[in-house]
Amino acid sequence: MMAIGWADVVALLTSVGFGALSAVVPVANAEAYVAASQGFHAAGPVAIILGVALGQTIGKLALFYGVRRGRTTEVVRHRRAALRARPVGPMRARFRAAVRGLLTLVGQKRWGLPITFAAAVLGLPPLYAVALLAGATRMRISYFGAVVLVGRTLRFLVVAYGVSGLGPGRG
Question: Measured on CA atoms in the order 120, 126, 132, 138, is the torsion positive or negative?
């Protein structure tokens, strides 16, 4: 049985924090964090992968929940009413149609979770956008969270083990 030391606990906790930050602030790149930690052998891959995946899931759940609960606030309703009163140009009309189409797909039982899983593993469509769209649908938060956690864990496994296999003396 493998013993867990303080270094692993610290790596796990800092990875959760960075994962949550990178989930809501797109310029904080989680993949770069995982790759750098494995490239420099800063910590074992398990603590880093699980920490970043858990942090990313927490951050995406915050976005999901923020949209789900935020759309009913008075401020948001007032802002939406003001935007509806403004004239709509051709670019905005196309954008609204595209968002409406994506919202319909993510909201369907047949396509919602597979699209979320693809976004979590592949990054296409961007998981940030999918989290926002999913929050506006009837998707269950528990399903969303589970799919994001599994998908992000798989993504970071590929990144971590891909980078760790590139070092000298490997082969």
Answer: negative
